[in-house]
Write a structure and sequence with these properties.
Structural class: alpha+beta
Largest sheet: 9 strands, mixed
CATH architecture of one domain: 2-Layer Sandwich
Number of helices: 9
Strand content: 15-25%
CATH class of one domain: Alpha Beta
Order of helices and strands: HEEEEHEEHEEEHHHEEEEHHEH
Oligomer: single chain
Length: 314
């Protein structure tokens, strides 16, 4: 057995124990939901693996890109605080910070807004890194997690790092998504990488809401945030959309957009929408890449060294 591999996997197991203890101590229930589902979601930027076979097609469906829909259905059933360490699958994602199969930590809490969720996320990352390293290391940079994490709105980041004022940023996000993402990747994210602390980027344009709700006090943006460690995105959190009518409208728009771009068009998850119709309480949720967090805890620069077997080693 390679000593370095053994030590890394032992550290990973210890980190997962710390993660689970963090949530259990805060009153969360660990749940498990299926990996094979009838709809993997309609996000324009994610492609799913399709599974076919079985008697009468009984095993047909898609491997999850996230356990989001099924976990939200549990919220609609009355669960208040739940978390899951899930195996997820995304087609076409392979690189030093991507793998087609990966581990996602996803959690939801009713009665907690997205600002409170940012604070809870900061506490989680701090608890894990202090317990197992004392800080986080990514791309040769050590991050002192005992200091407060930075918080920058998307509008502030575009103004500061790309010299693009808020009205122009909102217009690009709505009408010229390619230019918006080019600026985000080429100007904004490199700018965030210069910030000394881990940084929350929040209040995304409403057109980039995905399953987040619009911000009531500022409906041009949505209650969404991402946490960056240098140039590494660790998570994607939402103040969750609970309106089934608006959710269906977004799904139909995403289906049309996927068709226009020549992408696979996945079915709408009608049972998820039915659950929203029965009522989902005000809640927030976050999806955090365990492999990426572990890479920073272990001080390795690639997901290949953060898991037992990456796709290129199978």
């Amino acid at each position: 057995m390679k000593p370095n591999l053994y030590e890394r996997l032992r550290l990973r197991a210890a980190m997962l124990t710390t993660v689970r203890a963090f949530f259990v101590e805060r009153g969360y229930l660990e749940v498990e939901t299926p990996c094979l589902v009838p709809s993997p979601g309609l996000d324009l930027h994610l492609d799913a693996f399709e599974v076919t076979g079985g008697q009468s097609g009984s095993l047909s469906g898609y491997l999850i890109t996230s356990p989001e829909y099924q976990m939200k259905r549990l919220l609609c059933e009355g669960f208040e605080r739940i978390f899951q360490v899930a195996r997820c699958f995304r087609k076409g994602e392979l690189g030093h910070r991507h793998n087609p199969e990966f581990t996602m930590l996803e959690w939801y809490a009713t009665g907690l807004d997205y600002v409170g969720l940012m604070a809870e996320t900061e506490m989680l990352v701090r608890a894990v890194s202090v317990a197992h390293r004392g800080g986080l290391l990514w791309a040769g940079r050590e991050f002192d997690v005992t200091l407060p994490f930075a918080r920058i709105t998307v509008a502030e980041a575009f103004e500061r790092f790309a010299d693009v004022p808020r009205p122009k940023m909102l217009e690009l996000a709505m009408n010229d998504e390619d230019s918006y993402f080019r600026l985000l990747v080429e100007r904004v994210e490199p700018g965030l990488a210069t910030v000394e602390q881990p940084v929350f980027l929040y209040d995304y344009p409403a057109s980039q809401a995905s399953l987040a709700q619009r911000k009531p006090s500022d409906p041009e943006v949505c209650e969404r945030f991402e946490l960056y460690l240098g140039d590494l995105e660790l998570c994607n959190g939402f103040g969750e959309l609970c309106d089934p009518v608006e959710q269906r409208r977004r799904f139909e728009g995403d289906k049309l957009a996927r068709k226009q771009r020549g992408l696979p068009v996945y079915p709408i998850d009608e049972r998820f929408l039915d659950a929203l119709t029965t009522g989902m309480p005000a809640s927030s949720g976050n999806a955090l890449g365990i492999d990426r967090l572990f890479a920073a805890v272990a001080g390795v620069d690639t997901l290949r060294d953060a898991m037992a077997f990456s796709a290129d080693r199978l």
